[in-house]
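Format is chain and fold; as here:
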Amino acid sequence: MKLDHLKFFKEQKEKMATLKRTLFLCLLICFFTNGLTEEIQAKSGDDVILHCRDPSNANILVLRWIRPDLKAKGYVYFFRESRSYEQYQYPSFHGRVKLRDPQMKDGDFSVILNHFSINDTGTYECYVGRNNTGSDPEIINIIHLKVKADQEDITAKSGDHVTLPCHVPQNTQILVVEWIRPDLEPEYVFLYKNGQSHPDHQHPSFRNRVELKDSGMKDGNLSVILKNVTITDTGTYECHIYQSQRNHTMSIINLDVHQPDLKVEGKPGDNVTLQCQGTEDFTKFKWKKTDLKSEYYVCFFSDKELHKRYQHESFQDRVELKDPNMKNRDASVILKNININDAGTYECYVGYGGRSELITTITLKVIDSGADERGGDKDGHVGLIVGLSVVVVLVVVAGFMIYGRCRRLKQNQLPAEAADHELQDLNQRN
């Protein structure tokens, strides 16, 4: 029994030692991997520094910068015996790569890549060979060079046609172009593949509303036009392209769509049109008046008819479709025989399957037929003149009355003063 216990503890000790060695190895690998790997993002036309530094004092015999993802033989940059060799470079890098410090002081083997383009994206590795070692050059740094997406904020009003910009260098080989909105499912706003667009992959809200600005994508123009935008089009749009096995995000657009400030005016008894147009085929729509406290609507349409049972009593028999056939997704209505109480804010909501979208907000102003544009009575100026005349007359009459009273008081005062003087004279005589 004692031997079994000793054997058990010995096995546990060996397992712990193995676990410690494994953890140490993992930490060592992570340390060196993090130290070697670097990610850089750049825009087309930028000059990019590919960093590589080894502070050791050993003399450098050879320096190689390579792209392991390129199948052809060659180098990004090749340096040996105190000079570079352009003939060993990939043709696309001729005249575009040079040492950041020609003296390579303090072990600086960094190079500058001029005029970065999308074709330069990939992995770059820096190898250094020393005179005092007989081994092969060792890797010093690994750089993942990626495209930095253009970012732009765009503001639009509901109903506008908006251009979402995206460009790549001319003659760039492209297999697939996709515009997406990551918050949607499906996320595709526009998909171009095998020389044609694929509307079947689009989110339903974008069908028949998105097209390439240049159908031939000349000069690398991958911009699209989003038609008849609504407030629900507000969001972030990304332009991606695919080259062989690589995917690049070329542009990120933040679109903010505002509801236009629509106003309609009319006089009591008029018929007014409240405009509303859906962005896609809808199954139902409703018009609401924001100040109505009840849950009823101005009108409610579904199953190809207006439902009076959901209508507020003040609007019954006064609302009808502008176009009974609702061509071009027209959800506009005519409000008949308006009155002062109809003034307010109206909202049009359109239903697409299981979601509802606010399309239009309209402020209705009802002008009293007996009021001028400033809201006063159109004969008010006459009343004002009459009123002012009465006031003037009253002021004049009151003035005369006050004057007469003062005059009488003065006349009464004079005899009294004379009597006082006379009494004073008598006293002096006595």
In short: The longest helix spans residues 380-429.
